[in-house]
Amino acid sequence: MDRLEDLCRERGVRLTEQRRIVLEVLEAATDHPCTFEIHRRASAGRRIGVATVYRALNSLATAGIVTRHVFRDGKARYERAGRAVHPHLIDVATGEVVELDDEGGLARMIEEEARRMGFHLVEYRLKLFGEKN
Question: Which residues are paired to 129 by β-bridges?
């Protein structure tokens, strides 16, 4: 959490108690929660409104502290920024989003290919869509 606090200071974002709560929820998340799910988790034992969560997420995303993803279901889902690049597998039937481990070095292969072509890769997103058997 200290690293995220430092990042907020660097980006000129005041770390209010509400933003801290949202960041704590995202730091603990193992999934890609939508705004309502973040609110549900954040409001457990605390008073924070859904509109406040929306505002916090918007300001944190604008500052590059959290990443907003919009998958096939059309909902904005969030994760903390700065995590290692990883592909997402989306179930086309349910919209479930699964993070894939990159133990095989897919990110490294993509970066190497970009370098080979004369590019310095600054960002990429890989979404895979599938159906469960």
Answer: 90
